[in-house]
TrEMBL record:
This is Plastocyanin-like domain-containing protein. GO terms for cellular component: plasma membrane. Pfam families: Cu-oxidase, Cu-oxidase_3. Belongs to the multicopper oxidase family. Residues 19-132, 144-297 form the Plastocyanin-like domain. It comes from Daucus carota subsp. sativus. Gene3D superfamilies: Cupredoxins - blue copper proteins. GO terms for molecular function: copper ion binding; oxidoreductase activity. CDD domains: CuRO_1_AAO_like_1.
Length: 333
């Protein structure tokens, strides 16, 4: 085994430590996998062409690997972090991944790839930005925001893994998390006392929002009350810029949106991630809700949650939505 070092380009170094902590994202104490003591884990920010070194230390009680799906491992396939290309990292051991990010840009995420550990967490955002010599196909945003959405079970990952090994279905999730937190109490069906995510913004500014579906089985529809989502990038490529009121994000997918904070600050606004292709009445409790808070907001979010797509009579909706997303042809340097 050997490593490749690309000495003409800059290098970035990161340390990730996987460990168990107790958290209560849905109000029920449970074991989750933290990265550097945090759930979710830290964001890895790199620039095109940089050499990336990630030292992963395994403090779990079982073998582990960390993978970065969608990031192309050109001539470094053994750094992909999946069984078959990597040997597992035993408990208490560490392994340093070494790969170069080439001309891909945008939103990705990392997670543990063995033993269904991703159902317990261990995930974080992985963002690749342009070198300065490459111009953006849009005006530089005023800031970046990372949002991880995903279905969540209060059973630990070993119990879920055992059920799958026995041929059983996972069943309906217990909830949907947004940045590792449970839903805002938007109505009486949501238990009191659950810690929810609040994202603070300034009025008039435009933010690049990176959204990842880090769940295990559920497609989620993402939307922000009264705000348009201008799609700008998906998993390595800029896209033709189309406005959406909501977008389906399947498990493992990532998108970047440009969102301008152009609404009245009389109240906060709902950020929603809800399951798709299910009985909405039965699955109503499986809805992630966070808060978008303007710095000059005068009150709490009000009204009903923004509606998901109503495609009961239009089964081609999801297909048409997907094929409307087109890559933008630009020259990479």
């Amino acid at each position: 085994m050997f490593g490749l070092c690309f000495t003409d380009d800059a290098s970035k170094y990161f340390d990730l430590e996987l460990s168990y902590i107790t958290a209560s994202p849905l109000g029920v104490p449970q074991q989750v996998i933290a990265v550097n003591g945090n759930f979710p884990g830290p964001t890895i920010n790199v620039t095109t062409n940089e050499n990336v070194f990630v030292n992963v230390r395994n403090k779990l009680d079982e073998n582990a690997l960390v993978t970065w799906p969608g990031v192309q491992m050109r001539r470094t396939s053994w750094q992909d972090g999946v069984l078959g290309t990597n040997c597992p990292i035993p408990p208490t051991w560490n392994w340093t991944y070494n790969f170069q990010v080439k001309d891909q840009i945008g939103s990705f995420f990392y997670f543990p790839s063995l033993n269904f550990q991703r159902a317990a967490g261990g995930f974080g955002s992985f963002i690749i930005t342009n070198r300065k010599v490459i111009s953006l196909p849009y005006k530089m945003p005023d800031g970046d925001i990372v949002i991880s959405i995903g279905d969540w079970y209060t059973k630990n990952h070993t119990a879920l893994r055992t059920a799958l090994d026995m041929g059983k279905d996972l069943g309906m999730p217990d909830g949907v998390l947004i940045n590792g937190k449970g839903p805002y109490q938007y109505n009486a069906s949501v238990p009191d006392g659950i810690n929810y995510e609040t994202i603070s913004v300034d009025p008039g500014k435009t933010y690049r929002i990176h959204v990842h579906n880090v769940g295990v089985s559920t497609c989620l529809n993402f939307r922000i009350q009264n705000h348009k989502l201008l799609l700008a990038e998906t998993e390595g490529y800029y896209t033709q810029q189309n406005n959406f009121t909501s977008l389906d994000i399947h498990v493992g997918q990532s998108y970047s949106f440009l969102v301008t904070m152009d609404q009245n600050a009389s109240s906060d606004y709902y950020i929603v991630a809800s399951p798709r292709f299910v009985n909405q009445t039965v699955w109503q409790r499986v809805t992630g809700v966070a808060i978008l808070h303007y710095s000059n907001s005068k009150g709490k979010a009000i009204g009903s949650l923004p509606d998901p797509p109503n495609d009961f009579y239009d089964k081609s909706y999801v297909v048409n939505e997907a094929i409307s997303i087109r890559m933008l042809e630009i020259e990479h340097l």
